[in-house]
Amino acid sequence: MGVVVKKVDLTWLDRTYLWPVAKGLFITLKHFLRQILTTTKKRQTVQYPEMKRPVSDGYRGLHELKRHEDNSIKCVACFMCAEACPARCITIDAEEFGDLNTLQGIAEKRPVLFQIDMLRCIFCGMCQEACPKDAIWLRKNYELSCKSRDEMQLGKFDLMNTYAEEDGSERVVPESMFKTSNNQLS
Ligand code: SF4
Ligand code: SF4
User: Fold this and answer.
1) In terms of pLDDT, which residue wins out, 39 or 164?
2) Nearest ligand to the CA atom of 76
3) Which atom of ligand 2 is nearest to the CA of 136?
4) Which of 15, 50, 132, 143 is the 20 to 30 A CA-CA neighbour of 79?
């Protein structure tokens, strides 16, 4: 059903267009003075990046691929997240993994490649919902920037390390898999 939009009759003052401009400037000036006279903590302006606005509990930010205590990846390359992803931005390549891992039992598969195209991701959280291993989380980081499109293709180790600094945990690098016995890291 259509909506009838009422025509607004402009007064002669409105027709000069000076009065509405003056009103707009007055509002801007009012907010400017309010900001100047308010203490920094109470100001509505966020002095980013020194200050950051807290995000809500349900906020879905940058992904993290979770690890076990021994830093081995939790993901078992089941492809559930890739199937659930509406943006089709997750690419997984699985490999056989038959070594006995004391924490995981016998894991049969793990991702040799796990990549998310962050340029296509819509942060819907479906991958997290679909994961049977609780291996992928969308956490609070919203600071995503890059200088090229390639930098937004996050790989397995990028995703395992996205919150390493914040959590104070060790960064997992590809080389470290060779330092670990039983080829448990990947
Ligand atoms: S958040 Fe949504 S769009 Fe992004 S990778 Fe997960 S399922 Fe795909
Ligand atoms: S992140 Fe979870 S859903 Fe995706 S492949 Fe790994 S285990 Fe499966």
Assistant:
1) 164
2) 2
3) 1
4) 143
> Which string of b and e fits 152-162 if b means at least 16 CB within 10 Å?
bbbebbbbbbb
Radius of gyration of the chain (CA): 25
Query: Rounded to an integer, what is the distance from CA 70 to the centroid of its chain?
Result: 25
Per the CB < 8 A criterion, the answer to whether 89 and 116 are in contact is yes
Q: Which tens digits make up the pLDDT trace of 117-170?
A: 999 999 999 999 999 999 999 999 999 989 999 999 999 999 999 999 999 999
How many residues are listed for the chain in this entry?
Answer: 186
Binding site membership of 85 for ligand 2 (Cβ less than 6 Å): no
Tens digit of pLDDT for each residue in 73-127? 999 999 999 999 999 999 999 987 765 555 555 557 889 999 999 999 999 999 9
Prediction pTM value = 0.73
Residue 48 one-letter amino acid:
Y
Ligand 1 atom closest to the CA of 88, numbered from 1:
8
Ligand 2 contact, 107 CB (< 6 A): no
- Ligand at shortest distance from the CA of 62: 1
| Atom 4 of ligand 2: nearest residue by CA position | 81
**From edge to edge, which strands make up the β-sheet containing 90-96?**
90-96, 109-117, 153-154
Q: Is 157 helix (H, G, I), strand (E, B) or coil?
A: helix
**In the predicted model, is pLDDT for residue 43 greater than 80?**
no
Tokens of 125: 């959280």
